[in-house]
Amino acid sequence: MVRGRICRLLVRDVRFPTSLGGHGSDAMHTDPDYSAAYVVLETDAEDGLKGYGLTFTLGKGTEVVVCAVNALAHHVLNKDLRDIVGDFRGFYRQLTSDGQLRWIGPEKGVVHLATAALLNAVWDLWAKQEGKPLWKLLVDMDPRELLSCIDFRYITDVLTEEEAYEILQKGQVGKKEREGQMLMHGYPAYTTSCAWLGYSDDTLKQLCTEALKDGWTRFKVKVGADLQDDIRRCRLIRNMIGPEKTLMMDANQRWDVPEAVEWMSKLAEFKPLWIEEPTSPDDILGHAAISEALVPLGIGIATGEQCHNRVIFKQLLQAKALQFLQIDSCRLGSVNENLSVLLMAKKFEIPVCPHAGGVGLCELVQHLIIFDFISISASLENRMCEYVNHLHEHFRYPVVIKKASYMPPKDAGYSTEMKEESVKKHQYPHGEVWKKLLAAQEN
């Protein structure tokens, strides 16, 4: 039973100094500190449940997202949770169409990241009140109720609400069996943790060896900074994992369109399944041109982690610009907008392989992709979810990986809640960890 008026909203700037170990480093983001604008919602309900939400950042700039959350807070405070979820589409539109704040979006950039953090907290609270993990809340929802959470504005030329309803109705067939399959075997994952660009060859070898022992069969390597270095590292990793295992590459937006085609032609010998983010995430026609050139070489295009919103995804699908679609739980407008993208991907029969490289992203996106399999896609062909082995120890309900698969979360909520001790220690700039680091930098 949904209950309670939201009476308190707290947002904090939480940063982890991952740049010190080169974790998360790629051709474009050489020194990321995995961070989050972390939101807590409290209600006046007697159950004492809180909603936790976050959006992912790379360190500097988190304070700007925190500002944007505070600027949006008046849309959430003093609202009854029942009213929010009873007209979730209306509430989503209220947040994303604020007559003044919309000017610094619309539905993109900092203001959209802030929207995601707030809405992620609302979904966490709703799932907790229903006593279900978020994936199960979505799976059990009546198709009409599910669709009432989605804003279809700007995408009806590609997907109408009626078409979306038909997709969900078809997804009812075999749903129980697929849920059983997930609970038994989990959702297949791939690892990015072995081959960050800032890692030495020795570290790469050591991490690859460990991953192979742990049963990983799908690996992603960062490329794009130096061609000869890429050739050497890709050869090293391909030799280690052997010809049968799956290898993906990720350039993190480093190249121009012709450069992407030329560079990947030289890396084709290592048989990558895809090249991820070969160019600017906004360049739909550029992705389409790269796709046209590389698909004959057996290389697909993957993108999505920095796609602003459902409109960009719509155009990527229309332009046949990608073979693998990568949703992100914190870049888009939370669960609501991700649902619309999952449904569009199903209509175009493009596999969804979520992005999860960042703090908390694995915890969140596992819910969306498990729901996608059970209720929408009904397929595991060419599908897998990213996994990085960083910072899970800071979460109250960390991901569970077994045999290189995500096991469905059992705890109620969206798995967004961090340990309070971790939040306090890593709060920027006054947490214990940052006080020490900033003092050391001054000296």
Automatic annotation (TrEMBL):
Molecular function terms from GO: L-fuconate dehydratase activity; magnesium ion binding
Coiled-coil features, chain-numbered ranges: none
Pfam families xref list: MR_MLE_C, MR_MLE_N
Domain Mandelate racemase/muconate lactonizing enzyme C-terminal: 201-296
EC annotation from Swiss-Prot or TrEMBL: 4.2.1.68
Gene Ontology biological-process entries: amino acid catabolic process; carbohydrate catabolic process
Keywords annotated in UniProt: Lyase, Magnesium, Metal-binding
Catalytic activity: L-fuconate = 2-dehydro-3-deoxy-L-fuconate + H2O
PROSITE patterns for this protein: MR_MLE_2
Cofactor(s) needed by this chain: Mg(2+)
CDD domains: rTSbeta_L-fuconate_dehydratase (cd03324)
Protein family membership: Belongs to the mandelate racemase/muconate lactonizing enzyme family. ENOSF1 subfamily.
Stated name of the protein: Mitochondrial enolase superfamily member 1
Species for this entry: Callorhinus ursinus
Lineage: Eukaryota, Metazoa, Chordata, Craniata, Vertebrata
Gene coding for it: ENOSF1
